[in-house]
């Protein structure tokens, strides 16, 4: 199973038009990392947009699956 972000922790870094200024004062730096050669199968959630950081090498025996109605963007 692929490793995802802990949204309970990172949610405070997501800003929208509904974010109050007091909430912006408690934001912390957010770093997103991606391994270049996955050692486990990667499965993205259904109905979600997912993103990975490349370059990415998929070795023999490793699979990538994108959930129904979802997308995967590699940047």
Distance between the termini: 21 Å
Largest sheet: 2 strands, parallel
Q: Which residues sit in consecutive blocks of at least 5 with pLDDT less than 50?
A: 5-10
Task: Give the spatial strand order of the biggest sheet.
Answer: 1-3
Shape summary? flat
Radius of gyration: 15 Å
Helix content: 10-25%
Alpha-beta content class: alpha/beta
Helix-strand string: HHEEEE
Q: What share of residues are in beta strands?
A: 15-25%
Number of strands: 4
Detailed description of the structure:
There is one protein chain. Helices cover about 10% and strands about 15% of the residues. It has helices at about 5-10, 20-25, and strands at about 40-45, 50, 65, 70-75. The chain is of the alpha/beta class and about 80 residues long.
Helices and strands in order:
Blueprint: H1 7-10, H2 21-24, E1 42-43, E2 49-52, E3 64-65, E4 71-74
Parallel strand pairs: 1-3, 2-4
Using brief descriptors, characterize the structure shown.
75 residues; two-stranded parallel ribbon; alpha/beta
Summarize the structure.
The chain is built from two helices and four strands; from the N terminus they run ααββββ. The protein is an alpha/beta fold and 75 residues long. The strands form two sheets. A two-stranded parallel sheet has the order 1-3.
